[in-house]
């Protein structure tokens, strides 16, 4: 059966090139294209693709937040990250967030097609050469995301973006007290005392994208 893909990337030429290349493969069909995280979530809910192929850096909503929101509504969603970042922090952050795979934009078309097919088959697909060369770092590196609940991760990203508890409550449709409780729990779990420390931690972990 044809693998139905929704593609999200804010660079038009990149998105169009990837889309044309994938549609030339008889086993794959790009059924939707998006240029930001908010549009991606709407497309996923409407089209129910077999694979979501997405960038990390997108307007209106970062890839990390988009992954969390997608999986909160479609827990079986299969997400493949297409990124220019080859740092281990990004790979581990995407894996912790729930992505099934991670492939670099510099990869060949054949490698991308193979990765899409693996993810569609519910297999994981992460860069072997990167994880091997960084195996020691991977063992030492623990993403802040891994100890937080899905809701806490949403609050984490909003705090990292500089939002107040009042604004977070409005954005996530919750009470101010609930937002403050989530914020307090995050600080306790991550051994932090302020939003400034959280932002520094997010930056070191490569999560500010």
UniProtKB/TrEMBL annotation:
Keyword Transport in record: no
Q: Which InterPro entries match?
A: CheY-like_superfamily, NreC/VraR/RcsB-like_REC, Sig_transdc_resp-reg_C-effctor, Sig_transdc_resp-reg_receiver, Tscrpt_reg_LuxR_C, WalR-like
- The Response regulatory domain covers which part of the protein? 4-120
Q: Check the record and name the PROSITE patterns matching this protein.
A: HTH_LUXR_2 (PS50043), RESPONSE_REGULATORY (PS50110)
In what residue span(s) does the HTH luxR-type domain sit?
Answer: 141-206
The record's GO molecular-function terms, alphabetically, read: DNA binding
The UniProt transmembrane annotation reads none
Protein name in the entry = Response regulator
Name the lineage: Bacteria, Pseudomonadati, Pseudomonadota, Gammaproteobacteria, Alteromonadales
